[in-house]
Amino acid sequence: MVAMNPPTDQETRGRNDIRGLAEPDAEAPKVARVEGGTATFDAADLSPRLVNLELRRLIYAEGIREVRIENPGAKHSIAVGLLARCRITINGSLGYFGATLGDGPEIHITGRVGWSVAENMMSGVVVIDKNAGSLTGAAMRGGDLVVRGHVGARTGIDQKGGTIVVGGNAGSMTGFMMQRGRQIICGDVGPGMGDSMYDGEIYVGGTVAALGVDCIEAEMTPEDEELLDRKLGIYRIDRPDTFRKFVCGKQLYNYDNLEPSERKLVL
Amino acid sequence: MTDEMASSESMGLGKSRIFTPEVINDIHVKADLGRYRMRGGGIFKKIPHWDELVFLPGTLTRFVIEGYREKCTTKTVLGSRFAKNPLVLDIPIYITGMSFGALSLEAKMALAKGASMAGTATCSGEGGMIPPERDFSTKWYYQVIQSRYGFNPHHLMLADAVEFFIGQGCKVGMGGHLMGQKVTEQVAEMRSLPAGIDQRSPARHPDWLGPDDLSLKIQEVREATDYQVPIQLKLGASRVYDDVRMAAKCGPDVIFLDGAEGGTGAGPHIATEETGIPLLAAIPEARRALEDVGLADEIDLVVAGGIRNGGDVAKCIALGADAIAIGSAALMALGSNKEVEGADYQGTFGVSAAEFYHWHTGKDPAGITTQDPELRKRLDVDEGATRVYNFLHTLTLEVQMLARACGKTDVHSLEPEDLAALTTEASAMARVPLAGTSYIPGVTESQTLEEIKTLLAKHVANDGGGSDV
Amino acid sequence: MSDGTAGSAAQHDPQKQFDLSQRRLTTRQGIDTEELTGRTFPYQFDPGLVEDIDLLAATPGDDLNWLEDIHLMEEDGIPAVFDRYTNAFLKIHFDIPSGREDEFARKVLIKHLQEGNSYGIWLKHQHAKFPQPELGPWLEGSATVGENWTPPTVERWDKTFTF
């Protein structure tokens, strides 16, 4: 049978996938300059693989705690899976899956990010100075994720812990299926907020277009105010005068025994 | 003269094939419940299955291999495309992902130990890593599943292979289900959920939506794992040709196809019955897709779904699978659906042990699909592991037996040519000839059509189509 | 239960912190650290050993970071903290001053992690496949694991049959 996309170069085919993303055999480029405990390198000509290898070399092997990356060029999968305490400044923007799967790093991104930033973060701090795409902080388990600008849809989907702080507005289905943790949205939130959430709190400073299934408003407590003051203070974000708090209505915990009147909730 | 009020016995009146007593009972149950019915297990209805294929062993036209004496290799390597450490299995069969939560700790341990004894792998399933399972597993898949329950990048470092769960054959298009009675405090904490809830896992991944994002997600996990371990995509068998083409282009090392015959710990009855296509139809489609994108030699194919014996395994391999994963059969090897001391299947569930499908209730008398401390005592890990090992070993012997009879010194050399079909349906789906003929429905016709087209084209070229006739 | 355990950890970890022959699993509902590791840890019994833990210093950022989601729970009626790195409960046997429940739960957990006693993390000695710090998120300069990975084998298991 004739291949629809016959690979032209046997060697290339063996080592790269069709999109050219796979780079199994690379080695750390060793291009960073280290001055006063801070390493700096330019990512303009480096693939994600090389950037991550360089980061791991510096942080894991050299024990460097401060790294600065110039010209990240909105590359995907940068600074992923770092399981150590360190500070990374990314001077520019990242593509998809930026700063994900981390446990410990404090990462500052001065530009924008694509989808799924800080996905499954265990602990650490990720600060994005401008806007973030959709699925921000997906399945996050701990730590602080701060977006000073706006975020797209489904922020904190499947969130399992930690705090997501958004200085601007958030799109639709914010907190979709959220399980634990906190979201502080200073601006307005789109429709379907907190849809099917299990637990956790969503604080909104602006308006909410519409609540999702089984999300209800709750009373603000002094502890809630303390949290808002603390988080917004740490990240120097202007605090809106009033916040409203939203939580899970817990009507869908046991679909085995929904009352007849509750059944239409799930349609 | 006929009497319309007379007994219908002789006339078959009142015996609807549409509204059977079972169907009527189902409607009554739903009218009481007000929701779909949940259950464990796999598909109940009749579908074309492996029973409808047979092997064509060597006689005079093929040279057979001496059973028990001459070597017939079973070693299976998965993921050598990009992974620095491909998964090397001693046998072409491993234990598929079943969650801790759906299964008891003892069941997970026994499966892991049994698999390691047989030199093969197990899989974490949904819900995260449990140390006793990892300890017993010499080769261990860690699952990246839609819910990401308990997903921990440190545990990703413990993996020998990573499986992206995209769908399962039993309930294609749906996430996992775990009923509240099995969501204990331990299970809930692992998954960051409130205890006792009926847990419905998401059906979509939280951080990617389509194949373009998936290829980036694969890149992300490869970056995190330093390309050390294979990346496998698990798909429920549905539009297999298109799905496998797309999956292949996302850049995985291995593709896992789960047929409609696959089981589940808990799922809606309607979904287990009505979603997905049988494995014997899926494998040829997957092979065709891999050939068409030019990656047939690069990407390995693992299949699962309703595998019961070495014959099923051998048929999967012959149709083009590199490895076969088992789930339901492994639980049965452990002792599921078996009369055990203290069990009262009839009294508790109203069915015999063999018909027990109540894995979702968490009351499994065999201590396997339960979190109940008392029931779990009935499953001895070491005994269970030995049974699992024995079963895996037997499956392998059976595969070898059939492979040798077909003249193969490596089980992976089995090919479609070694098979014949007993029904036209199986023949059409598996694309092997109907026994005793060279006829493959669909294939034969299109070949004939091609021949006619070629002849016509020659005819047109030779005399301008005979327009002056 | 130790026979059949996959293992080549001893060659990687001279300390051999955990002895699986001591493992005593029961059919209790949760997975308990003491049953799992077959041992206890002094800081489960003595608040003095964790009192000085600086939670702010032990976590990224300017506040408690991930520990905000860690709370004192209960197991078998005994206070316990859930260790998400092992997926097991760690019991706290000392009397916790009232009003400081979460604080002590967090301090015990951090101590447990910093000492390298979280079993799920210790497994990296055996299974990590490229060099990385073992306790990087909690401890500066921790040991490197994953430098010489070899596939684990089944200990004390002779295959009666060969294929």
CATH class annotation of the largest domain in chain B: Alpha Beta
| Tally of structural domains of chain B | 2
End-to-end Cα distance of chain C: 26 Å
Kindly report the spatial arrangement of strands forming the biggest sheet of chain C: 1-2-3
Shape of chain C: globular
| Largest sheet, strands/sense/barrel of chain C | 3 strands, antiparallel
| Largest beta-sheet characterization of chain B | 8 strands, parallel
**Content-based structural category of chain B:** alpha/beta
Q: Globular, elongated, flat, extended or rod-shaped: what is the shape of chain B?
A: globular
**Average pLDDT figure of chain B:** 93
Overall mean pLDDT score of chain C? Answer: 87
Largest interface: A-B, 58 and 50 residues
Strand content of chain B: 5-15%
The strand line-up of the biggest sheet of chain B is 5-15-14-12-11-8-7-6
Rg from alpha-carbon coordinates of chain C:
18 Å
Assembly type: heterotrimer
CATH superfamily heading of the largest domain in chain B: Aldolase class I
Poorly predicted sequence stretches spanning 5 or more consecutive residues of chain B: none
- Uncertain spans of chain C: 1-14
Q: What is the straight-line distance between the termini of chain B?
A: 67 Å
Structural class of chain C: alpha+beta
Write the layout of secondary structure elements.
The complex is a heterotrimer of chains A (267), B (469) and C (163).
Chain A: H1 10-15, E1 33-35, E2 38-42, H2 48-61, E3 66-70, E4 86-91, E5 103-109, E6 123-128, E7 144-147, E8 160-166, E9 180-185, E10 201-204, E11 215-218, H3 222-234, E12 244-248
Parallel strand pairs in A: 2-3, 3-4, 4-5, 5-6, 6-7, 7-8, 8-9, 9-10
Antiparallel strand pairs in A: 1-2, 10-12, 11-12
Chain B: H1 21-33, E1 38-41, E2 53-55, E3 76-78, E4 87-89, E5 93-95, H2 105-117, E6 122-123, H3 131-136, E7 140-144, H4 153-156, E8 161-165, E9 177-178, H5 185-191, E10 199-200, H6 211-225, E11 231-236, H7 240-249, E12 254-258, E13 264-268, H8 269-274, H9 279-292, E14 300-304, H10 310-319, E15 323-326, H11 328-334, H12 345-349, H13 373-376, H14 381-405, E16 419-421, H15 424-430, H16 443-463
Parallel strand pairs in B: 5-15, 6-7, 7-8, 8-11, 11-12, 12-14, 14-15
Antiparallel strand pairs in B: 1-13, 2-16, 3-4, 9-10
Helix pairs in contact in B: 2-14, 7-9, 9-15, 10-14, 11-14
Chain C: H1 9-12, H2 33-37, H3 55-58, E1 73-75, E2 78-83, E3 88-91, H4 101-114, H5 119-122, H6 124-127, E4 132-133, E5 144-145
Antiparallel strand pairs in C: 1-2, 2-3, 4-5
